Amino acid sequence: MADKKEYLFKVLVVGDLGVGKTSIIKRYVHQIFSQHYRATIGVDFALKVIHWNDDTLIRLQLWDIAGQERFGNMTRVYYREAVGAFVVFDVTRASTFEAVNKWKNDLDSKVTLPNGQNIPAVLLGNKCDQMKEGLTKNKSQMDQYCKEKGFVAWYETSAKANINVEEAAKFLVGQMLANDKTYPSRDLDLNSLDLNMPLEETKTGCCG
Amino acid sequence: MDEVLPEEFDVILIGTGLPESVLSGALSRIGKNVLHVDSNEYYGGSWASFNIKTFDKLMSETQMHQEDNSNPVNLEALISEDEEFLLMSASQQNLSNCQSYCYLSKQPDWVVATNVVEPNVVAEPDEVEISDDKDSPVDVATTAPTMVQKHSDTEDLSCRDVDFEERNNSDNDNEKPGVSDKQSGDPAKEKSTDNDSRNGQVDAFNNATSEEKLENASDQSSQADLPHKETPLFPFYEKFYENWRRFNLDLSPKVMFSRGQLVELLIQSNVCRYLEFRNVTRTLTVLSGENRLQPVPCSRADVFKSKFVTVVEKRILMRFLTLCANFEQHPQEYEAYKDRPFQDFLQSKHLSTKVQHFIIHSIAMVSEQTSTMEGLHATQKFLKSLGRYGSSHAFLCPMYGVGELPQAFSRLSAVFGGTFCLRRRVIGIVADKTSRAVKGVIDSTGQKIKCQHLVLDESHLPDICRSGFKREVSRAIYVTDKSVSPSETEEVSLITLPPVGNFPLYRVIEAGPLCCLSPNNYYVVHALTKPSCVDENAIVDLKETFHSAEKTMFAGTAAELEIANNNESDKQKPAVLWAAYFNMMSCGVNNDSLPGNVYVMSSPGFELGFDKAMNEARRTFEIICPDEEFLPRAPEPEEIVFDDEGYKSENNGNSRENPNEQPEAGNGDYMETEEDLQEEEEPDVQGLIDQEQGVGDHVSDGNGDNA
Ligand SMILES: Cc1cc2nc3c(=O)[nH]c(=O)nc-3n(C[C@H](O)[C@H](O)[C@H](O)COP(=O)(O)OP(=O)(O)OC[C@H]3O[C@@H](n4cnc5c(N)ncnc54)[C@H](O)[C@@H]3O)c2cc1C
Ligand SMILES: Nc1nc2c(ncn2[C@@H]2O[C@H](COP(=O)(O)OP(=O)(O)OP(=O)(O)O)[C@@H](O)[C@H]2O)c(=O)[nH]1
Ligand SMILES: [Mg+2]
User: Fold this and answer.
1) Residue B372 sits in a domain of what CATH number?
2) What interface predicted TM-score (ipTM) does this complex get?
3) Burial class (CB in 10 A: 0-12, 13-18, 19+), B636
4) N or C end of chain A: which has fewer CB within 10 A?
């Protein structure tokens, strides 16, 4: 199709230590789960290409919290131009749920959509394979919580058992697509310099 | 953040300024285990950029970090017999004499109600405060210039709103509504005779008649009989602060030489993917005896096109710059002047006064006294950068402010495993009594963290390693309503205002929405000068320090212009809507008292570019990791293949496909034109003459210098 539309969406994946952020990304992007715990080194984001439908191609950048940037002190680079987020907690650990509010507030204070609204955030209660009735057992309470805190949805997920990861991502992509249609994305006529492209003053972004 | 940190690291870095962040990125990149802490809640230290509300707040805070609400740490339990403890100073004093002002009127009720209301009704508060209310961070009175914030350093007189008293010294008791003096009754007030005694001196500078009239007019207005204006000249205060988040105001504005070390490093390490840049699009200056900014011709094309230099000047300038570009190959040209002032050398080359001015102040950016060798090197450095990213541009600046730079390197460090912790204060260093080597640090939560090496920014030195504070750079920041030299397209300007009379040299950088430093229709003007008095306790009136620069660049403050009939003011020049003044401090390092494995990174100084900071980071890296590569290329996410074992880099960035593939095009406008020096080129001369007469424009596009 000649008029196939392409989108690039930057999605932030935040949440406390060890809740399974990296596992969820690995599951979603690479269909792999590893019991082995390791810090993520040297990677800014994982890229997932989605053939949404016949005329829509989506490139999803999933930005993990860099290895140890986990004290919640991410730099602007991390937030810049994000259009969606997953806030992850571990259904087996209450403290990680308590931290959800902090993560959500952090997002809302650091990044907004071009129209000034908060970026859509989906709450993920991960490791639901471990506890049938974990922190998310009261569904209506969870719904209420999400409404109060401004989450667009919540899911019980398991990176290990591959539960709801795909669904959650699909929902968020739908939100981001809808948002993208309501307002034009950033002006592209004011492109900045690319340091790798000398003497070409109007190139998209920096360094590709 | 009181989370417990791991107990041991290879390197601990304190402060997230640029050199520390570059070093942190470089260390993590090669696999060192790094802890990077900062007592601030923001990245960048003295290199940070802030939105305008945060900036107002910063200017008003007594000290940058004072919330020491942590429990006292029981040191005895943490320090063993053979260890000693070096206490870190609790206050950091990177900034002093801070003050900020908003010159816009608060929206009076009649604007909303369309009914006429006495404006002085609004002018009620006599104290200006920061309010937490988002829509109106500060209470202001109508019309009167307002000191937004005050740095209430009790030892420092100069933070008072002396401007008001001095300029209206006919009536010292006449406190304007809306102008606060939070320090009433404090030591500053008692010493006010000091201020008075300086008034005569101040007025000598201040005798510009239009200024005086503006002041007088402003006087009357505050007596509350300001007539209503149907269309205010300037946005209301509320409107202005509506866009507070879109300002990015630098503590240390600088520009990047296109061939400077920072640009090379950004490319080499691939950190540039985190950043966006713009060209500095023009260089401006003021010639002596004039009061008007004019463009400095730098590139060959500029020189051709310039209307400010004659044909003969053009030719001599062109030859001279070509010589400077490759001066090492022509020692006979400058041998005799090696140790003499650069200016003498310029004179010997028959450069006119105007052209000498351009070279000294705007191209080499040195002083008349600088030695010829230094001048030649500086000129060459500029010429090398010229044309790399645009035919007549030599400098770049990061979008969203200089504060993005340390953050980009910090991100690199974090991506490669560095642990970052803001809002974490280190209270002191633990050193071995006998070897004097640092063994670790103790933070304000009472945690002892071990390390092999410790990197500090200057402001975090333990007291005993300090040799005393001094003022390093005096700063002013202005938000204006238009460019200092309006043109069709938005420009990014580097401006040198050479010293005149008692006034010093000012370096000025102006940028706006294009660099995302301000919302649309506003400009940010950064002015820097060397402090007239470096002593931290001396009284300075920073407004006075910048008076001459302000007169050259601006029509006046919005408050002044709103009152004055606008025929008074130079309509071409911008109005100042908001301003801040402060001194950047440096504290000398007493190297003798410094343990061997402690490295101190300097605060940003007056230097224009980033080479000093980059050198410092690189040198320290080479000491800590003698055989390692400094910032090898980080792979793009696409280059990372994934297997069951986890993420793995295909090409761990250590080998580029083509290591020599560096941007080479546009290599120095004057660099490859050796022959120009040897021979006169007749066509060139003809070209120059044609140009002068407006005939033919062979050089209109970029580097077309061999027309
Ligand atoms: C530490 C910190 C980092 C931030 N980083 C970003 C970021 O990387 N990307 C982001 O979009 N917002 C960022 N923000 C938020 C940003 O400063 C604004 O608060 C937000 O964009 C909404 O601004 P606005 O509605 O006033 O302006 P708008 O008119 O909505 O902004 C205009 C456009 O500029 C973008 N923009 C504004 N400020 C920044 C900025 N500082 N950096 C990058 N883009 C910006 C906006 O996203 C928007 O597309 C950050 C805020 C903080 C405190
Ligand atoms: N049972 C179960 N374990 C999981 C699941 N997701 C992740 N884990 C495990 O939880 C641990 C932490 O997972 P990570 O993906 O590394 O978590 P993270 O949030 O990226 O952690 P940090 O990067 O250290 O903050 C690992 O041992 C995973 O194997 C899940 O859905 N179910
Ligand atoms: Mg992880």
Assistant:
1) 1.10.405.10
2) 0.83
3) middle
4) N
